[in-house]
UniProtKB/TrEMBL annotation:
This is Cyclic nucleotide-binding/CBS domain-containing protein. Residues 155-210, 217-273 form the CBS domain. One of its GO terms (molecular function) is [protein-PII] uridylyltransferase activity. Keywords: CBS domain. Pfam families: CBS (PF00571), cNMP_binding (PF00027), DUF294 (PF03445), DUF294_C (PF10335). Residues 10-89 form the Cyclic nucleotide-binding domain. PROSITE patterns: CBS, CNMP_BINDING_3. InterPro entries: CBS_dom, CBS_dom_sf, cNMP-bd_dom, cNMP-bd_dom_sf, DUF294_put_nucleoTrafse_sb-bd, GlnD_Uridyltrans_N, MgtE_transporter, RmlC-like_jellyroll. It comes from the Bacteria. One of its GO terms (cellular component) is membrane.
Length: 606
């Protein structure tokens, strides 16, 4: 009987009896350097599990420089799809002397029949495999099921509802009796909310009579959720919209209320208190202290297996609140309505978890008189540096007059960039396309974005120039075979993240999609029919995988484990077998996406 490690997928889907059948049925074979193990078109007779050595996967239909599409090392598996499809689509060649375990076709097919999860592994999409990886990484007592799958219905309180004619005195008595902090006010147009603070302000600050109706003080612009939504989404929404309560709606009727304290209690890790500390900060010093805890929050999210999309959403909202609070402390309130602070780049897309270089700008209402705006923006930039956001090497910051201007000035800049179409102008258009308002009046940014769409979305030549940048960096599939030294690795940002982000950004520009998040843009493109739903899902999962691998490198740098290494460089040999499998699939998805971009925007002619 051959001894082999069967603790990893897909063999982990077998029970002990199934694994014993594998151990009893496999053999060990030697392949010399450059020996063809499996030829294109050859019927699959074995599943190969590499014990030692390296194997290249080659697409013989491609020219020599592009034929290498995959690379397998110890612990990797190949040949299963050749059995299921009855022939091999690609050639597999030993890159060096290799030892492989051979699982015969008949035994493999028997295992597929006897263990459906084992069989399903080979048919799974990238999204399914990525979920498996996330579940494997979950540590401690909080699992994917307990942490990420908690629903709003599990945490909501029954609503305390009163009629719009109810008096303030009656409402105070009812709240005192029920030990609640808020109540819903119902009228013919929908529900509104009144909190204890609203009642106190009405009586003490506004001087209202205690017999005044609740209709006069209720807030009817509510943040609402559905009972089946994930509770983690609610935490993101509360942070983004600066509220401590959301109303749960079903069939246009309020059925519950979720409060921030309930959500934070549900997620018992004290790291989640960071959101509350940011919100409660009433001085810059308090904001500094809360802001310094965000790396702790990131580590807790990753350690507990939180799906990256939710983690990015929470941290983007949190970073936005930190900047908004800083803006509120520093900028005179009389300028808030006539100005808009925007963030750009990965921060604008909500795809940066750890704090990185500042990319921000300022839009002013036409005719606004703000004599010391330059001094105020310099102070804001310095404050953001103290909060942990380093200065931008390209000087794309509000203390640079080039990134401050009125609505009309921004519209003129966009028209000029669109006309020039050189590298610098196209970069600035891309930066503006990703801009997101974090403080002030977001309507000013909406007007500027509308001008950008009007200038660019129908210009086929401009779109072709714009899209070409997505092909700037080669997909690193052909580099796998040479990554043998520990100091080498794949630049995951250039090879994986950037082509997806910029390609999707180009399509969003063409379709005039307002969302700035790449994941939300993918959903909008799928809904619009511009992308197949499966393609959009695979691109989203590929982007999440690349981002997570990059984040792991960044966290290691914070801990001093990879000093001197680029945070964008992922060493293949340090990945698990499943991670390498996911990496290969994700890079194939990027390669196919770049080919479709090339055809859509005629990049083969540019």
């Amino acid at each position: 009987m051959v001894e082999v490690d069967l603790s990893q997928p897909p063999f982990s889907f077998l029970d002990e009896e199934g694994r014993e059948r594998v151990r009893s049925g496999i053999d060990l074979a030697y392949f010399d350097r450059d020996e063809i193990i499996l030829e294109t078109g050859q019927p699959g007779e074995f599943v190969f599990l590499i014990h030692k050595g390296e194997v290249a996967e080659l697409d013989t239909t491609q020219p020599g420089s592009r034929e290498r599409i995959g690379h397998y090392t110890a612990g990797d598996l190949f040949g299963a799809i050749s059995i299921l499809n009855r022939k091999s689509r690609y050639r597999f060649r030993a890159e060096q002397e290799s030892l492989c375990y051979l699982l015969p076709k008949a035994l493999f097919l028997q295992l597929c029949d006897d263990y459906p999860p084992f069989a399903e592994f080979f048919q799974q999409t990238l999204a399914h495999k990525a979920r498996l990886l996330t579940e494997q990484r979950a540590e401690g007592g909080v699992t994917m099921a307990g942490f990420m799958l908690a629903r709003v219905s599990e945490c909501m309180r029954p609503p305390l509802c009163m009629g719009s004619a109810t008096t303030i005195a009656e409402a105070v008595a009812r709240l005192h009796e029920s030990h609640a902090d808020s109540l819903l006010v119902e009228n013919g147009d929908g529900a509104g909310m009144v909190t204890k603070t609203d009642l106190l302000d009405a009586l003490v600050l506004q001087g209202r009579d205690k017999e005044s109706p609740l209709q006069e003080i209720a807030h009817f612009e509510l943040v609402t959720v559905r009972p089946e939504q994930y509770l983690f989404e609610v935490l993101v929404m509360m942070t983004r919209f600066k509220v401590e309560r959301v109303v749960v709606m079903e069939q246009e009727r309020p059925i519950g209320v979720v409060e921030l304290t309930d959500v934070l209690s549900f997620f018992s890790s004290r790291s989640y208190v960071v959101s509350l500390q940011v919100e409660q900060a009433d001085t810059l010093d308090a904001l500094f202290r809360a802001s310094r805890r965000t790396p702790e929050l990131v580590k807790a999210l990753m350690a507990q297996g939180v799906k990256l999309r939710f983690a990015m959403g929470l941290l983007a909202a949190l970073n936005g609140r930190i900047m908004s609070k800083a803006w509120g402390f520093l900028i005179d309130e009389r300028y808030h309505r006539d100005s808009c602070l925007m963030v750009m780049g990965s921060e604008g897309r909500g795809e940066q978890i750890l704090k990185t270089d500042q990319d921000n700008g300022l839009i002013l209402a036409d005719g606004l008189d703000w004599p010391d705006v330059g001094e105020q923006m310099q102070r804001l930039t310095e404050t953001l540096i103290e909060l942990g956001y380093p200065p931008c090497p390209g000087n794309i910051m509000v203390n640079n007059p080039e990134w401050v201007g009125s609505v009309s000035q921004w519209q003129e800049r966009i028209a000029r960039w669109a006309a020039k179409r050189d590298g610098d102008s196209l970069m600035k258009l891309a930066i503006m396309l990703d801009s997101h308002a974090v403080a002030g009046n977001p309507a000013l940014l909406d007007r500027v974005r509308l001008s950008l769409f009007e200038q660019c979305s129908r210009d086929e030549i401009l779109l072709s120039y714009f899209a070409r940048t997505a092909l700037r960096f080669s997909t690193p599939l052909t580099l796998f075979g040479s990554l043998k030294k520990p100091q080498h690795g794949i630049d995951i940002k250039k090879g994986g993240i950037f082509p997806i982000v910029h390609g999707v950004r180009t399509m969003a520009l063409e379709r005039r999609i307002n969302q700035t998040s790449t994941l939300e843009r993918l959903e909008a493109l799928a809904a619009d029919g511009r992308l197949e739903e499966k393609v959009a899902e695979n691109l989203a999962e590929a982007l999440s995988l690349f981002t997570e691998l990059r984040l792991k490198q960044q966290l290691k740098r914070l801990e001093g484990d990879v000093e001197g290494k680029s945070p964008d460089r992922v060493v293949v040999q340090e990945l698990s077998s499943l991670e390498r499998d996911l990496m290969r699939e994700a890079l194939h998805i990027v390669k196919d996406f770049k080919q479709s971009l090339s055809q859509r925007y005629h990049l083969e002619y540019t």
